[in-house]
């Protein structure tokens, strides 16, 4: 076979003999489909009307009609037919005369993209037969009346996901006649978690309702001792969101033929959600300046972000972990892949691919932030594959195959230490299984391990409960109980597969065992002073003195330090067999000017026992209590009838809030509304009334956020029951 190249195609898509057509990346692009394909010269006097021809096609595409009801797609605000693969759907064809099966021949054609090909799954001809086989393309007539026939059509369970164009072709002795291009008959085909033969099948109806059909979720943040939650609007059914999600796959240049594989889709989506290397959906920002964009904490959901990206084709500014995770979840649920957002408290980012996180202490015993590069954080997302949860991350920290993405990695494989599996399992294993080493750098460059904490990383992994707003602890799905035989075996398995574990025997480490140090903090309210207490317990009969260093840091929610706002050192006298406590007051004036997105502090206390030279170390993360928005409704809540919602906020700070912006949204209730308020003086209350018309009955959620120069992460939410008219 001779190879040819085409000069009229861009160089990057040079054609050769092995590839007859250019790559097919775009679901939106189309080819010209001839309305008539003649078999030769057409005789004079030939009249197409003498033969069977199509007058109209009825798609049963309204939300209340059979297709969207049976395929669980009635919630999509989209006028076109949306069905799930591997499940029959119906259409009705009206001809110019009654259909005669013995002499008439017609078939259906589903096409996708600019270069439809049967072997790529982008050109699907369907002949009418007598039986439908499960999981295979086919069509059969289920009703005939006058000039109309009703067809039941089965799609393949491995069919590619996206928007297909539909044509009906009729065979005549002189050629093939097709229906005109009609966008009203376009058909979206999605993944089907209700179908046993689909790779994304989920066998529990309540879980399907939660992980596919619920358009609101909960993001858990804060820290292990003080878990906080807020709602996030996924909005996967809102207008244009489905098209925006399909555009993401075009942007990621995923070949159309690969779009039937949920793992491939997750892999490219993980890369395209973040904009670090491919002009993706969201630009991340962790430096507390959000010029020409929206602060991450101001977003109330995914819809605005996806629609802005779909129209501008430019990264939307700005996001942080929970924003990436929320948008990723919307993308997956929209396409029919069951997904849930999880939070990994004290998640490690293992810079060195070994199972340890290093906090470096300087020669005085204080934490040296220049050398300490691993962070403790985490928001991750998950999808199901044959009832096996897989972990995928929309905010990947490491490059994978040269792209910033992470996952999917099987949760079961991670739990058992089987980190040989694709993709990125060693990284995820380290995220939930590392130990913290407090390491002191000697002047000659040697590292001395002063303290080891084996329980802090991955100490709590949570997600929203099915069917409610509560929290479920899923830590045991990821790891065995610390110190158990199973945990040791999983660790040895991970080490066997090449994940490095530095054991305590590798390092010179003798801890101080007869003195304990503990750290407690008073409840801290934003804008107020609060107190922290360091307690020593000397269990020995010796007197000791401890040179103690206290460091208060304002941190990004990821655990990465932004700035040290308080330093304090003192000498503690430790009497034999007794406890001693020391209080330190944190003043609001010390932290307010530097405060960040989630109002998080990270306190380090290190103490050197002077008599032995040993070091004690403890760290604690603290979240400030932030005031909330109050939301209430006025009047009765009936679908199709105008009502109003009132949002109120009282400024608790000892300063005026400048550049205040409020956002309000509710999936299925109202699209995001923004309002700018110049300023709110201290102790004064802002009131905002919004009129809206709820479209659908049922339980819905209103979510509001407030953002200003000095105060962020202010939220409010309200569950509302919309009555039937």
Please name the defining characteristics of this protein:
725 residues, mainly beta, Coagulation Factor XIII, Chain A, domain 2, Immunoglobulin-like, 4 domains, 39% strand, disordered N terminus
What would you note in describing this structure?
The protein has 725 residues and is mainly beta. It contains eleven helices and 40 strands. 13% of the residues lie in helices and 39% in strands. Strands 1, 2, 3, 4, 5, 6, 7, 8, 9, 10 and 11 form an eleven-stranded mixed β-sheet that branches. Strand 39 (698-707) and strand 40 form a beta hairpin. Helix 3 packs across helix 5 (303-312) and helix 4 runs antiparallel to helix 6. Tetramer of two A chains (F13A1) and two B (F13B) chains. GO terms for molecular function: metal ion binding; protein-glutamine gamma-glutamyltransferase activity.
Number of helices: 11
CATH architecture of the largest domain: Alpha-Beta Complex
Structural class given helices, strands, pairing? Answer: mainly beta
Question: Helical amount among residues, as a percent range?
Answer: 10-25%
Return the CATH class of the largest domain: Alpha Beta
Quickly count the domains. 4
Radius of gyration: 31 Å
Number of strands: 40
Strand content: 35-45%
Going by CATH, the homologous superfamily of the largest domain would be: Transglutaminase-like
Mean pLDDT comes to: 83
Taking pLDDT < 50 over at least 5 consecutive residues as the criterion, the unreliable ranges are 1-19, 347-354, 369-382
What is the fold-level CATH name, i.e. the topology of the largest domain? Answer: Coagulation Factor XIII, Chain A, domain 2
Largest sheet: 11 strands, mixed
The best one-word shape is elongated
Organism: Vidua macroura (Pin-tailed whydah)
InterPro entries: Ig-like_fold (IPR013783), Ig_E-set (IPR014756), Papain-like_cys_pep_sf (IPR038765), Transglutaminase (IPR050779), Transglutaminase-like (IPR002931), Transglutaminase-like_sf (IPR036985), Transglutaminase_animal (IPR023608), Transglutaminase_AS (IPR013808)
EC number: 2.3.2.13
Binding site for Ca(2+): 433, 435, 482, 487
